[in-house]
């Protein structure tokens, strides 16, 4: 039996930012699954880098329990020396991915090393995915191939060991506002795309208010949020700007079609054009990931609540659950660590939560697969 913290140390020391190949991390993990049936789903990303999804099973058939974990991390600051040189201080392990989500992966591998795969009556699956941090690319490919069928699925993400039963979706769009360039000394000869973009921003505030009026009390905040995160326009101080681009994202609550916000934005743009025929703006939706709606079954969430002592919850961030969950199965997002410390320098996971997570996973395996 290998100590979970030392597995995590090894995992953090293998850089696996999404732009790199995840094959080294997967190969490390497979050493713990040597008597399992391994199904490989390789692909090449748009930059030509080799990526690998893996579905490992203890035996063929629909998995009674599947443990899903992504293998990539977000990038890190070059100044952060511990990013791939993990350090333990005061009961916490620091390093990129320690929390999101190599901590959970270490727990899965540790739990796997504590069971005899041949002695499980029902199939247990471990699913390793690539490119989660850049849009759940690996999970979407597995979903498209219907590579995973499971009755109960635990998707690893830092939830502080609270079983998460629902999550918001994710949508991303760009609004391109077109004006007409002119010498700034003669503004009447052009049309400022930045001034028109200001009208669009005010319209987006109206859309936000409409979205906020539809409540879903299971979430904090209890509605679909919208953010204009990036705006870029103009080329010089003495040119009337000809173009301005606004990047918008929104996070739809379950039960609400992600296209609704896009329709509201579209209506606002059409209204601006009607008032002023010279106004030109187009909305291009680039991503529409569905929300993760609560499963009908509750057996897995109830078990994890009992084992971890944490109440079931919802999350405002997107996960692979929206892609790998299925309506006839129960899906829960669960794992050690706190998402608010992830994706920033100094990311860590408390070692106590690692051990507690392993205990929960071993108990869940016994409950559903023994
Ligand atoms: Zn993650």
For the CA atoms, what is the radius of gyration? 23 Å
Total DSSP E strands: 15
Q: Structural class from helices and strands?
A: alpha/beta
Kindly state the percentage of residues in helix: 25-40%
Write down the CATH class of the largest domain.
Answer: Alpha Beta
Instruction: Give me the CATH architecture of the largest domain, please.
Output: 3-Layer(aba) Sandwich
Protein topology:
Elements: H1 4-13, H2 23-30, E1 37-44, E2 50-57, E3 65-70, E4 87-89, E5 92-94, H3 102-113, E6 124-129, H4 137-144, E7 152-156, E8 164-167, E9 170-178, H5 193-212, E10 225-233, E11 243-251, H6 259-275, E12 280-289, H7 299-308, E13 313-315, H8 321-324, E14 330-334, E15 348-350, H9 351-369
Parallel strand pairs: 3-6, 3-7, 7-14, 8-13
Antiparallel strand pairs: 1-2, 2-6, 4-5, 5-15, 9-11, 9-12, 10-11
This protein binds zinc ion.
Explain this structure:
Strands 1-2-6-3-7-14 form a six-stranded mixed sheet, with helices on both faces. It is of the alpha/beta class and 370 residues long. The radius of gyration is 23 Å and the shape is elongated. α3 crosses α9. The chain folds into two domains: 242 residues, 3-Layer(aba) Sandwich (Aminopeptidase), CATH 3.40.630; 120 residues, Alpha-Beta Plaits. The two termini are 20 Å apart. It contains nine helices and 15 strands. The longest helix has 20 residues. Helices cover 29% and strands 25% of the residues.
């Amino acid at each position: 039996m290998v100590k979970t913290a030392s597995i995590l140390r090894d995992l953090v020391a293998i850089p696996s930012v999404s732009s790199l190949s995840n094959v080294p991390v997967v190969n490390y993990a497979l050493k713990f699954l040597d008597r399992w049936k391994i199904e490989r789903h390789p692909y090449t990303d748009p930059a030509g880098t080799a990526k690998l999804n893996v579905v490992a099973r203890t035996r063929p058939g629909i998995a009674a329990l599947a443990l899903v974990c992504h293998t990539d991390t977000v990038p890190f600051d070059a100044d952060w020396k511990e990013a791939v040189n993990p350090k333990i201080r005061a009961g916490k392990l620091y390093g990129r991915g320690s929390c999101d989500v190599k901590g959970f992966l270490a727990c899965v591998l540790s739990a796997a090393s504590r069971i005899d795969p041949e002695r499980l009556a029902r199939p247990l699956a471990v699913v390793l995915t690539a490119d989660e941090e850049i849009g759940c690319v690996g999970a979407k490919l597995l979903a498209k191939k219907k590579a995973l069928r499971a009755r109960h699925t635990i998707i690893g993400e830092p939830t502080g060991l609270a079983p998460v039963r629902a999550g918001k979706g994710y949508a991303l769009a760009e609004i391109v506002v077109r004006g007409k360039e002119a010498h700034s000394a003669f503004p009447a000869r052009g049309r400022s795309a930045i001034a028109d973009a200001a009208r669009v921003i005010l319209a987006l505030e109206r859309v936000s208010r409409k979205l906020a009026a539809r409540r879903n009390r299971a979430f904090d905040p209890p509605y679909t949020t919208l953010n204009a995160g990036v705006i870029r326009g103009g080329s010089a101080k003495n040119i009337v700007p000809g173009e301005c681009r606004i990047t918008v994202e929104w996070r739809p609550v379950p039960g609400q079609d992600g296209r609704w916000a896009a329709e509201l934005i579209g209506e606002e743009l059409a209204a601006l054009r009607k008032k002023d025929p010279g106004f030109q703006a187009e909305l291009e939706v680039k991503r529409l990931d569905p929300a993760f709606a609560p499963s009908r079954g509750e057996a897995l969430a109830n078990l994890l609540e009992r084992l971890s002592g944490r109440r079931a919850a919802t999350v405002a961030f997107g996960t692979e659950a929206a892609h790998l969950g299925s309506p006839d199965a129960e899906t829960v997002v669960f794992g050690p660590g706190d998402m608010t410390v992830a994706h920033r320098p100094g990311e860590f996971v408390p070692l106590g939560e690692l051990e507690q997570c392993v205990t929960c996973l071993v108990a869940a395996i016994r409950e559903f697969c023994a």
